[in-house]
Design goal:
16 helices, Aspartate Aminotransferase, domain 2, 2 domains, single chain, alpha/beta, 399 residues, binds pyridoxal-5'-phosphate
Length: 399
């Protein structure tokens, strides 16, 4: 039977557990599994090496882990895909994707900025043997070469919240598969597969875990892609730890509630910040940007989420002074947790991105990124207001 997402979030990871007689998927910490039947063990190993998700014997936990598999099955369902493959971090997921895509011998990737700083650096530095063409969203078709293995975009993009039109990218990419980093949206607000994407990436460290206590990444995709990703995961040893998988399964059950509560806070804060005399600009899906961006928001997302960015009428020092003056909101990288976090991308998350590219994609030195949590709204606003008033002294005002 087909259910609504709100139901699937609670039940999808439990279904396999129920079949095994559990109410909650168990945490399986074994690293190895007894192999009393050698022929069965050999056949199982062969199956994993071919990229299969499971076999009669798990053999070794780098090849398969039951707790992780429950999380993957749930993610496949939530993203509307055949399968999903989980990793030890978002960067491990993206690395595996680059390696899996390059396995065909085609090493060229087309990507649209801005993306998460780590992804930008990984694609640009060529560590994994790939080449990259960074293009504007409407220049993807022109950048496709015979050896292009993948098109990669992130929407909403980190940290400017700029949206990329997934369907338009897919149309330009033709035969080339499109991967969408949907970390900021979660399956609650956006399902890239419906717009034609082949692969959906999440840093599960963020909203999916949601409590700041698990590092993980996941790629939702077809069975074919999943098999290639698992082959890479086995060889590079990038499997997710079962405790992490357990925490993610627990996180999924409340994902929709958390996303909607944080979004309600963010919507109100975005409005108040826009109206504040010391604030220069606010970046928030559906609110900022061109008419085309707002129209795309309506088509592609069911809500703006809870990450916003803003600039003060001041320089980078004013931005840092604001952060230093906060008493409740935590200065920290990462996002998507139940608590509110703030950071200056040019100083931290996007520090490793080429400076010119950074400025070109709108990441100014005084830009602040705020990941809004589920605290009481007025407590958050009071903290921001008092810190802003301390941050803006005449010396900090931009000329
Ligand atoms: C954090 C993040 C990543 C990297 O994920 P990790 O879990 O930190 O490795 C990738 N993409 C986006 C959009 C992110 O926010």
């Amino acid at each position: 039977m087909k259910h609504q997402l709100a139901t699937d979030l609670v039940h999808a990871a439990r279904q396999g557990a129920t079949a095994g007689g559990w109410h909650v998927p168990p945490i399986d910490l074994s690293t190895t599994y007894p192999t009393p039947n050698p022929a069965e063990a050999s056949a199982s190993l062969d199956a994993f090496v071919e990229g299969q998700a499971s076999a009669a014997n798990p053999v070794y936990s780098r090849l398969h882990n039951g707790t992780v598999r429950h999380f993957e099955t749930a993610m496949a369902k939530l993203e509307g895909c055949e399968d999903a493959v989980a990793f030890a971090s978002g960067m491990a997921a993206i690395s595996a994707l680059i390696l899996a895509a390059g396995g065909s011998g085609n090493k060229h990737i087309v990507a649209v900025r801005p993306v998460y700083g780590g992804s930008d650096h990984l694609l640009s530095c060529g560590l994994l043997g790939n080449q990259v063409s960074w293009v504007e969203a409407d220049q993807v078709a022109a950048a496709i070469r015979p050896d292009t293995a993948l098109v990669m975009v992130e929407t909403p993009a980190n940290p400017t919240l700029k949206l990329v039109d997934i369907a338009a990218i897919v149309a330009q990419a033709g035969e080339v598969p499109v991967a969408v980093d949907s970390t900021f949206a979660t399956p609650v607000l956006q399902q890239p597969i419906k717009h034609g994407a082949a692969l959906v990436i999440h840093s599960a460290t963020k909203f999916l875990g949601g409590h700041g206590d698990v590092l993980s990444g996941v790629v939702a995709c077809s069975q074919d892609w999943a098999a290639r990703l698992r082959q890479v995961r086995i060889l590079t040893g990038a499997n997710l730890h079962p405790l992490g998988a357990y925490l993610l399964i627990r996180g999924l059950a409340t994902l929709r509630l958390r996303v909607l509560a944080a979004q309600a806070n963010a919507l109100e804060l975005a409005g108040r910040l826009s109206a504040h005399p010391l604030v220069d600009r606010v970046y928030f899906p559906g609110m900022s940007g061109s008419a085309a961006q707002r129209c795309l928001f309506q088509r592609q997302m069911s809500g703006p989420g809870s990450v916003l960015a803003f600039t003060l009428r001041g320089d980078a020092l004013a931005a840092e002074t604001l952060i230093a003056g906060l008493q409740l909101i935590t200065p920290a990288v990462s996002l998507g947790s139940v608590d509110t976090l703030i950071q200056r991308p040019a100083g931290l998350t996007h520090r490793i991105v080429d400076a010119e590219a950074l400025a070109g994609s709108g990441v100014s030195p005084n830009l602040l990124r705020l990941s809004v949590g589920i605290e009481y709204l007025e407590d958050l606003w009071a903290d921001l207001e008092q810190a802003m008033s301390k941050a803006i002294e005449p010396t900090h005002l931009a000329a």
